[in-house]
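Lab notebook, bench 4. The sequencing result for the construct came back, and we need a structural model before the next group meeting so we can plan mutations. Quick request posted to the team channel:

Model the 3D structure of this chain.
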Amino acid sequence: MQTLAQTIPAKAPPAQQRTKLYLPREHGATAMLLTPIVAVGLLARTWHWSELAVLAAAFAAMSAKDPAVLLMRQRFVWKKPSPEASAAARWLIGWSAVLVASVAVLFATWPLRAFLAVGAGVAAFGCLAIFVNLKNRQRSTLFQIASAAALTSTSVATCLAAAGSVARWCWWFWALSALQATAGILVVHARLDARIALRKATAASPQFRRAAQVALTVLLSAAIAAAVLRHIPIALALALAAAGYAWDLKRQKNPASLQMPLKTVGQQALLLSSLYAALLIAGLW
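Done. Here's the predicted structure in token form:
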């Protein structure tokens, strides 16, 4: 005969809480950060080991954002301990150490004026990003445009590391990359608004859709200007980006398209941005 203890199912041991990994979660933003590093590394036609410090600093700065925001929210918003705070603090210390080491390398290899200018810009945007996240205003259109410019500014840092100065073509690459990134961010946000509206059976907010349409107009205008100036690969890049994003805005009106997994949408956006970068490299070579 079974005992009472044998007839009662044993209570399962509590599942071990998995430690959160504070790594970049936004694949699109990570691509915007890293693609210019690769592209400018090719366009510079030279290499310096300090480019690795640019890569490490960029990745560490992006990775440190989430734990920094969590700790700031605990301090100024929640005003009570968070169970994730200790892990976030450890990750923040680790990423900060990587960032400090990378910055030390850049300080030793860059011209002082350029180092101070880039450092001030990065610090200012970092503070802005944390403030905006604390206020839950990260969906602001102006902040999204500023984010596109900040993420693609790794092109300038890479050029400084490779050549010791920022070449004229690099300024053009940064401007064109930021333009494409801005359009991409706005189109993605328009899709997210449309998905939310579909679930709630309400009309989607026109904010990001209108902003994206303005960005596409700028892309198309820039493509025409590049064609007139006979910069054909650059004109093709701009026209390709405008056509790709216009197509995405059009299919956002189709409920079936809005059901597409965001991972698939991200892969398509990554393919488009990669082709865009390849054409820019061809045009600026």
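The first helix runs from residue 4 to 7.
Will bring this to the meeting.
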